[in-house]
Specification:
heterodimer; A: 171 residues; mainly alpha; 94% helix; B: 221 residues; two-stranded antiparallel ribbon; 4% strand
Amino acid sequence: MIRIDRSIILQIINFVALVLLLFRFLFKPVVRALDQRSQFIRGELQKIEDEKKNLEATKRALEEEAARAKEKYLEIMDQAKLEASRIKEGIIREAYEEGEKIKNEYRRKARKEMEELLSGLREDIVELTEEVVKKFLATQITPEVQTRLIDVFLEEALRELKAQVEAIHER
Amino acid sequence: MEEIFNPQVLFYLFTIPITKTIISTWVVMAFLVLFSFVLTRKMTFIPGRLQNVLELFVEAIINLIEGMSPGNGRKFLPLVGTLALFIGTANLAHLVPGLKAPTSDFNTAFALALVVFFAVPFYGITTQGPKQYFKEYISPSPILLPFHIISEITRTFSLALRLFGNILGEEIIIGILFLLAPLFVPVPMMLFSIFTAIIQAYIFTILTVVYLSSAVEVSKH
């Protein structure tokens, strides 16, 4: 027959004592070791996480810097293009003005020379006419001959004048 | 036959009978405390083999409790862990010549069950408060109060008897086999008893966790 005696009290005390002893010598140190390791791992993970965040922030900053640099580059390029365009227009305008100036100078010179030539030609015609008149008078040429001679002379004079004008133009 | 159920009293200590079971219990206790002390004396950050086993055991107990009662792993660990270790070791004590499995004595099994019986309201009251805890006994209806009380008492006896019966049965079978064929025949049975010892320790532990978790769980009624 199963009998419950007073030894049950001792067994309860024994077990409670064992709980306390094992708590002191087993569970407490093991749990502390586990906690320390977990804490260390958590710390390391946190460090990695922080490092990752730092790297991401640096990356973002660098990307922003690169974007700003690109923006600045484009701005400088635009300004340079504008400047170049302005300089180009200035050079073209100056060249055009210079060309116009040279052209006007030559035109003025040509006109002057033409006037000189025309004046010289007029004098030549007068001299020639005088000579023709003299010859005519000397030979007593008929009116028909006289007219033809004058025409020939005038044509010749006109051709020479044209040749001189063309030469001036070519120059 | 009488000695099988009630171990022989060796002497008396202040009117308390000191039986072979008590001596075996002290041996088991001394072994566990010494073993723990030696192993945890030099805990290293990177664990060695034995420290690994120890940590594995503690973590397994914590996970077992957390699985049924989340957040209470550390709180129940001393009691549940000690129960698992003590019952496991005590169940195997009969394999050591000269020792008797303390759990094959009803007084030990009943003492352990009584510890659980008192631990359940202790944790329940400290977690929920006395009002909320005792309210559970009359919910959903006060008619159920006697049934709740009977359930508490019977489950305590059931815990004790299950452990006691299995271990004593095991010891009796091995004893009979020793009488019949002492050389090799009991060996498989002894090997099997290792398995039974661990299973019984596990059952007692898991049932304790179930009772404790139901005590600390705040009722939805």
